[in-house]
Design goal:
Structural class of chain B: alpha+beta
Oligomer: heterodimer
CATH architecture of the largest domain in chain A: Roll
Strand content of chain B: 15-25%
Radius of gyration of chain B: 27 Å
Largest sheet of chain B: 7 strands, mixed
Number of strands of chain B: 28
Number of helices of chain B: 17
Helix content of chain B: 25-40%
Number of domains of chain B: 3
CATH class of the largest domain in chain A: Alpha Beta
Structural class of chain A: alpha+beta
Number of domains of chain A: 2
Shape of chain B: globular
Strand content of chain A: 15-25%
Order of helices and strands of chain A: EEHEEEHHHH
Largest sheet of chain A: 5 strands, mixed
CATH superfamily of the largest domain in chain A: Beta-grasp domain
Distance between the termini of chain A: 51 Å
Strand order of the largest sheet of chain B: 3-7-1-14-11-12-13
């Protein structure tokens, strides 16, 4: 709508995309509304809940706090890009350990945990708790989410 | 029952969609040409609206129109589950911080938000009722216009919306060796579903289609039909699985507004609340319990004399039911000879409180159980023993003449004690607490479903329960699989569309497994009967000669699989078995609650804490919950629900508290300032144990579950803190600051 929209080009889940965005559009809004990838969720809109987590150039970010224009030339992975060729062991592990309740936080959890395991392939339980502490689950599934991540990493902790 | 379905921890139905991001929640559903709505509200609680100037907003590019009360029927229609007291939009005044008084419709979310910020409201802030003391003060303004209350309501000139006087026996003539007199407070807390409430509406034919993250789609359908004077069949509610509900998404909130806007504009519109707006839309009823509890020397509870004040908000919503249903069980799971309880439901200029997991029982349990611990200390009786003495045994009444105890609650308590290491030596700075909570389940209601066995033997189940994380899809699929012998992956569940799915009363009160589960079992039995009849006709034998076992039918010794027998009975032209199932609870008009509870949900919590005696900070070393569930149809699902409830209980026990300023504004509005438990708040060890005695009314002896884990959290942890520190705290949450203050003498931190 805005006359000052600008075009940005970025790679989303391996595909090059060019999108026109206004200076105030967030990465989350762009991905959900323009690219129609609704796996990332909006909850707090201030970087506290992690429901909108995406991977931006290898780093997990709260996409509600990133302006779309800043991502020109970047590489983005959303939940849709994780396990696109079949579920990852981490996703399988979430299912097996019963880590999923309502599921609204789960895309953000999976993205954050995927990034965590990239950084620390065999984390300790405190490392998982610390690494995911920016992701809120009101269903209170923390114990099982933690176990799911540990199990996927081949560590102990599966119930 | 035999077969594969019951007692098996089958993976979550819908789990794959949730873990891949494919699950569509209400805000994710694409609606063509949809317009966006942003709400306008004031930065104070109670205010008179003098003038709304929308000119700034309508000049913004993309803004289509601004709606205020003047754009809606006059008088503005009102609705609500108990009283029709909530206007579709604020009219002459706002009654709580965040009450919408205008709605800006625009082509984009950004333009709508920009428009909302540009609406100018001339208003006058008015004195407000922001606390229990305010509400009881005869000088305070009246929240509800007496004209809106029934003419013979003796309380119409006060802020007491409803009063209940519960009691039995004679408190005054009951002798007690020790009387504990204390006051407890329970804070305002908010649901904080990670999915903010989302609504949309679009004209459809000569009716309306509505999308909502609602738990009770049929209640919404009825409300809209009544407000719009439409036949129920012309109101179609799409209810995608909610992203967490916890009671907060039970009853209609802004759907009527969105619907009226869509009809007026003749276009689809959508409103997605911000998290801050959800804080302003729903909360738990806060409470102050003044309790006088009498015990004999040997720890027997002999009377309870109580004044219990519950602060509802600006509109009643379902809060009167929350209050009456929880306070009616004045002694929780205990036997007591005499009760006198004066219970008041108070109006205030605050966010309307509504159902919230536990439905008033966490508030009641905080008081009842803290009194048990006070008595145990006074009488030097072990906290486990004093509870064992008083807990109702199976068949004993907890309210005279009402449903007796339906579980072995002492067994649950003993398991909790054993699991937490009760009686074992404690490290310095450590303490343990144990507690029991009771919540009454649904009293009345009805669930219907349609079951189709398709001609290849696969099954379509059409059932109106909302799966908001509790796993109803999995449980109902397991029940079909179990009863018909059809593999779970060949059963498809259709939910969430009132145009095709039959009526279900609500998704609340932990009722889905018992009510809808029983309806599904009923449908399976009818399908089997129909199949046997058809096979008997086809083979010219009596129906007794047709034997159904899950997955197969034998006729005169010949065994057919389901697809074979369907092919056999229908011949060349395919057909299907179509049946309905139902489960109704009629209630009892003479019962104070409209009917006895269909079961009790009883849970024990045992906790061990380690306190830093310097700072008052503490951590949970061990946190055990024991749930009496009758039968776990899916143990993993039940355990994860119970653990989740326990974590939610940690929230209101340890950290959560909506704080109001003198203008009635929520100070800690949003995720940054209102903390809920995170990974870092988890107990070092947490375990959920299930007691399964098959003594529930649901399939296989199941009771409902999933709320119990938070009923007794607060008193268990507070008792553990008391043992560790020697101080007793009577206000929640148990923040380190409050603990430190209590340890350093003084009641400065007490809630008034």
């Amino acid at each position: 709508m805005s006359p000052i929209e600008s075009a940005i080009t970025l790679t989303v889940n391996g595909s090059r995309r060019t999108v026109r965005v206004s200076p105030s559009t967030t990465l989350l809004e762009m991905v959900r509304s323009r690219l129609e990838l609704t796996g990332a969720k909006e909850c707090c809109a201030e970087g506290e809940c992690g429901a909108c987590t995406m991977i931006l150039d290898d780093e997990p970010v709260n996409s509600c706090l990133v302006l779309a224009v800043e991502t020109d030339g970047s590489e983005i992975t959303t939940i849709e890009g994780i396990g696109a060729a079949g579920m990852t062991p981490l996703q399988e592990s979430f299912l097996a350990t019963g880590a999923i309740q309502c599921g609204f936080c789960i895309p953000g959890m999976v993205v954050a945990a995927t990034a965590l395991l990239e950084r620390i392939p065999r984390p300790t339980e405190p490392e998982v708790r610390e690494g995911l502490s920016g992701n809120l689950c009101r269903c209170g599934g923390y114990k099982r989410i933690c176990a799911a991540v540990m199990a996927a990493a081949g560590g102990a902790g599966a119930p | 029952m035999s077969g594969s379905g019951l007692g098996i921890s089958a993976p979550r139905v819908g789990g794959s969609e949730r873990v891949t991001g494919a699950q569509s929640f209400a805000a994710d559903i694409a609606i063509e040409d949809v317009l966006h709505v942003a709400l306008v509200h004031l930065d104070c609680g109670h205010a008179a609206i003098e003038e709304i100037d929308t000119s700034g907003a309508v000049g913004i590019e993309g803004v289509i129109r601004v709606f205020t009360a003047k754009d809606l029927p006059d008088p503005v229609p009102r609705f609500g589950p108990r009283f029709a007291d909530r206007p579709v939009i604020a009219t002459v005044e706002t009654k709580y911080h965040g009450e919408p008084l205008a709605a800006v419709v625009a082509v984009s979310k950004e333009a709508a938000a920009e428009g909302a910020a540009a609406v100018q409201v001339r208003h006058k802030e008015l004195p407000g009722v922001y606390s229990i003391d305010d509400a009881l003060d005869p000088e305070s303004p009246l929240v509800v216009d007496p004209a809106l209350r029934s003419g013979d309501d003796p309380l119409a000139g006060s802020n007491v919306r409803q009063r209940w006087d519960w009691g039995w026996g004679d408190v005054d003539s009951t002798e007690a060796d020790v009387v504990i007199e204390e006051t407890y407070t329970f804070p305002m807390v908010t649901h904080f579903s990670i999915e903010p409430h989302a609504f949309a509406a679009a004209p459809e034919g000569n009716g309306i289609a509505v999308w909502s993250s609602i738990q009770h789609p049929y209640f919404l359908q009825g409300t809209l039909a009544s407000l719009l004077d439409l036949p129920i069949s012309k109101v179609r509610v799409h209810a995608p699985d909610p992203g967490g509900g916890f009671g907060g998404k039970g009853f209609p909130k802004y759907e009527p507004l969105v619907t009226m806007i869509a009809l007026e504009l003749g276009r689809p519109v959508r409103l997605v609340l911000t998290l801050e707006e959800t804080f302003q839309a729903v909360r738990r009823t806060n409470a102050r319990l003044q309790l006088r509890t009498g015990f004999t020397r040997d720890g027997r509870l002999v009377f309870i004399d109580a004044i219990e004040d519950f602060m509802m908000g600006a509109y009643a919503d379902i809060a009167p039911r929350v209050i009456s249903k929880s306070s009616y069980f004045a002694a929780g799971p205990y036997k007591v000879g005499a009760v006198r309880a004066v219970v008041r439901g108070l109006m205030s200029h605050t966010t309307p409180s509504t159902a919230f997991r536990g439905f008033g029982a966490p508030q009641m349990t905080w008081g009842i159980e803290s009194q048990m611990d006070a008595a145990a200390r006074a009488l030097k009786i072990d906290p486990v023993d004093i509870r064992l003495v008083n807990l109702a045994r199976p068949g004993e009444e907890i309210v005279p003449g009402d449903r007796p105890a339906d579980g072995d609650w002492r067994q649950a308590l003993n398991i909790a004690a054993e699991k937490v290491g009760w009686g074992e030596p404690l490290l310095p700075g450590h303490g343990r607490g144990i507690s029991v909570g009771l919540k009454a389940s649904a009293t009345a209601g009805a669930s219907y479903c349609i079951l189709r066995i398709l001609h290849d033997g696969s099954v379509s189940l059409i059932a109106g329960t909302s799966d908001m994380g509790q796993g109803a899809r999995t449980i109902l699929t397991q029940l079909v699989s179990e009863n018909l012998g059809v593999p779970m992956e060949r059963v498809t569940l259709v939910m969430g569309d009132t145009a095709v799915v039959p009526f279900d009363y609500s998704t609340s009160a932990s009722r889905s497994t018992v009510f809808m589960g029983s309806a599904v079992v009923d449908a399976c039995q009818k399908a089997i009967a129909d199949l046997r009849d058809k096979a008997a006709d086809q083979h010219h034998v009596s129906v007794e000669d047709v034997v159904f076992t899950p997955g197969q039918v034998s006729v005169d010794g010949a065994v057919y699989t389901l697809p074979e027998v369907l092919n056999d009975v229908f011949g060349a032209v395919p057909g299907e078995i179509i049946v309905t199932g139902s489960q109704r609870g009629e209630g009892d008009a003479n019962h104070p609650l409209g009917g006895a509870a269909s079961f009790y949900e009883v849970s024990c919590t045992a906790s061990e804490v380690s306190v830093d005696l310097e700072t008052g900070d503490f951590e949970l070393v061990k946190h055990i919950t024991v749930a009496d569930v009758g039968r776990a149809i899916n143990p993993q699902h039940v355990e994860m629900q119970d653990e989740g409830a326990a974590v939610m209980g940690l929230g209101h026990t340890l950290m959560e508290h909506l704080i109001l300023d003198e203008h009635g504004r929520i100070v800690n509005l949003g995720a940054l300032d209102y903390r809920i438990p995170t990974f870092k708040d988890m107990p070092s060890t947490m375990e959920s144990v299930l007691v399964e005695n098959g003594d529930g009314p649901g399939p296989g002896g199941a009771k409902g579950s999933g709320e119990g884990g938070l009923l007794a959290t607060s008193p268990a942890i507070a008792a553990a803190l008391s043992e560790a520190t020697g101080v007793v705290i009577k206000d929640l949450p148990l923040t380190p600051e409050r603990v430190w203050q209590a340890m350093h003498g003084g009641d400065e931190g007490r809630e008034q």
